[in-house]
Amino acid sequence: MHKKKIVILGSTGSIGENALKVAKHLKGEIEVFGIAAGSNVKKLSEQAASCGCKYAAAGDEASFSKLKSLLPSSVKALSGQQGIIEMVTHPDVDTVLCAIVGTAGLMPVLEAIKAGKNIAIASKEVLVMAGEIVMSEVRKAKVRFLPVDSEHSAIFQCLDGKKHKDVSRLILTASGGPFRCMSSDKMRHVSYEEAIAHPTWNMGPKVSMDSATLMNKALEIIEARWLFDVPGKNIDVVLHPQSVIHSMVEFVDGTILAQMSTPDMRFPIQYALTYPHKHPGSLEPLDFKKFSSLTFELPDNRRFPSLDFAHQALRLEGTMPAVMNAANEAAVELFKHGKIKFTDIWKIIEKTMSSHKLVVSPSLEDILSADEWAHKIAAGTK
Question: Domain holding 125: CATH number?
């Protein structure tokens, strides 16, 4: 039996670690061919020794030298974006799981698609920045492009086998984050540590931070628009604090399909890596006795304007989604280092978006240029 050979980009992060757990559980079906990370080379080398991969790539030259000295002789060390691209385009690779935070995943994903590799996508920035370009390449290469986000995985499963014309709207669920019931005045004074303390999910700091501002959900609206070819006006968000229903699809006849499970990223990771098959998982199924009620409420866009930013970015399209994403990244860094208040994050995003000169039909270079510009503007360095 042919084992599916996978590459995990961002293996030392939360998604990457869970992907390695899933691969270990499915070792009869899946083989980890290569892994990549930024600068955490100690952890990367330990993962390489543990999973038995053939390649390991570090994000830069300085990390590469250290990685090379730590790796077992059976693992080939690679460096930087070119090294990662060499790994993801290798003839033996079947699927690339991209879980790199930031823009670093964009070029490796595009090159992997062109090389005919199936993609399991966890990096929001890839579709938020360049959704039209990426999905055009997916159609050309006729590869699978499967979501790893729990919300998009849920929608994908609800849509499986359904006709596109029968879909009325997509409904993304959100926990609401740690400040769901907090006033704007109180939110102004929260700390970074409070912001990344997510109430229901165990995630990395960037995603947890974006969940606190609802920017995570804003990015997911844009992702969903490209993944499922549904206009932004037909994508809604409801708050669901228990995080049991991961998202829903409403059809033209008024019926709704929802996907449910306990909140654990290993469910959507396994689904993306084994699709179109279902394999026995390592996790317990949902225990309804633990949930006496499931509740829903509408988001407060006055206190949490992130969703409005997403819909504005989708109305304009072009380079605006990339600018929104970059402005958020820069603002979050400022907040993390105590240079701005929590509520200033939205002000910086709004100001950056309003001062951007839109490129309507951008090339990849235009998008990367807009990303760089927005980072500098939002960070106050331009």
Answer: 3.40.50.720
Domain that holds residue 380: 317-382
Structure-token pair, residue 232: 């932004």
Note whether 354 and 248 are same-domain residues. Answer: no
Question: Is there a single domain that holds both residue 139 and residue 183?
Answer: no
* 245-251/256-260 β-pairing: antiparallel
Assess whether 158 and 143 both reside in one domain. no
Q: Give the global pTM.
A: 0.95
Q: 3-class DSSP state for residue 246?
A: strand
Of 125, 135, 129, nearest to 98 by C-alpha is: 125
Domain match, 167 and 304 both? yes
55 Cβ contact list (under 8 Å, min separation 6): 7, 33, 34, 35, 75, 76, 78, 87, 90
In the chain, the number of structural domains is: 3
> For 24-45, how does the pLDDT look when each residue is reduced to its tens digit (9 = 90+)?
999 999 999 999 999 999 999 9
CA angle 25/28/56 to nearest 5° reads 75
Statement to judge: residues 230 and 358 lie in one domain: no
Instruction: Decide the pairing of beta strands 76-79 and 55-58.
Output: parallel
pLDDT for residue 62? 85
Residue labelled with tokens 């729990």: 150
d(CA 179, CA 111): 39
Task: Tell whether 165 and 243 lie within a shared domain.
Answer: yes
133 φ, ψ (degrees, to nearest 5): -65, -45
